[in-house]
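ugh ok fine here u go
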Amino acid sequence: MLTTQTLSLLVQKLVKPCRLFRKQRRGAAAVEFAVVAPVFFLLVFGMIEYGRMVMVQQIITNAAREGCRVAVLDGSTTASTQTAAINAMASGNITITTSNVTVNPSPPSSAAYGSPVSVTVTVPFNQVSWLPSPMYLGGKSMTATTTMRRETVQ
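structure:
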């Protein structure tokens, strides 16, 4: 049976080499972090960028749909269609101009009954990114097109 004194001697003999081993590992955590950190930050910023891309794509799809809803009605104009799309984009805190909204045919009231009317909304991703300089999608444009049949009295 081990006495308390012999047990404490054994513990001291085991602890001393472990302490020496720990002293030799100084800075290991810093080196491991330096190796893993770039990959970690690339993944985090990639998730932020692609998440924002999905969010903006949904907003411009809704804007194209809202613009097309206005375009298929009687008496619609290109300006009213563009305004509807711009207002839908503003609800998502994205500012665009009329040059970002294309209506085909222009004016939409020139389309015959049942003819297709298309509204296309285009936004450069650099304009809507949350990152200062997008890493993966920089320079790309996001586009959404909606086509509906013209509603008018025959």
